[in-house]
Amino acid sequence: MAKLNVNGRVVEVAVDPDTPLLWAIRDHVGLTGTKYGCGVAACGACTLHVDGQALRACSMPVSAFSETQRIVTIEGLSPDGNHPIQRAWRELDVPQCGFCQSGMIMAAAALLAEKPRPTDADIDQAMTNICRCGTYNRVRAGIHAAVRAGTSG
């Protein structure tokens, strides 16, 4: 049994300690916005926040986390889906198929929390998520739009 603090709520999950955090969140907590993409932390579809830092959840075992660490999934980023990044994504039609976008949004939100006015070079360095549709230019535009709109979401 592991205790995790997910989106401000402590939950108990009955999983093997080696179970990746991704599967505990999806299968046991029931939050399916965090996606499985590659299983080796390369693509970023599984990105969520742990204590404000972007983390790829598919390769980190549940045993690496405690209930004192704040885990935030895409569902917990904004109670109404109106975080400035989410608004910018909608306004600019950033996603194409959308599969990778919850991870992209979480990575972008972590970037803006760390660097409220990122340069293109900062964005390129931080946004290492893979988008099969290739919407990288719209991702960059969405981040800049969120900065212009204010990132206090």
From TrEMBL:
Q: Key word Oxidoreductase present in the record? A: yes
| Domain 2Fe-2S ferredoxin-type residues, every copy | 1-77
Q: Which InterPro entries is this protein grouped with?
A: 2Fe-2S-bd, 2Fe-2S-bd_dom_sf, 2Fe-2S_ferredoxin-like_sf, 2Fe-2S_ferredoxin-type, 2Fe2S_fd_BS, Beta-grasp_dom_sf, Diverse_Oxidoreductases
Q: Which domain of life is it from?
A: Bacteria
Q: Which UniProt keywords apply?
A: 2Fe-2S, Iron, Iron-sulfur, Metal-binding, Oxidoreductase
Q: PROSITE patterns given for it? A: 2FE2S_FER_1 (PS00197), 2FE2S_FER_2 (PS51085)
What protein name applies here? (2Fe-2S)-binding protein
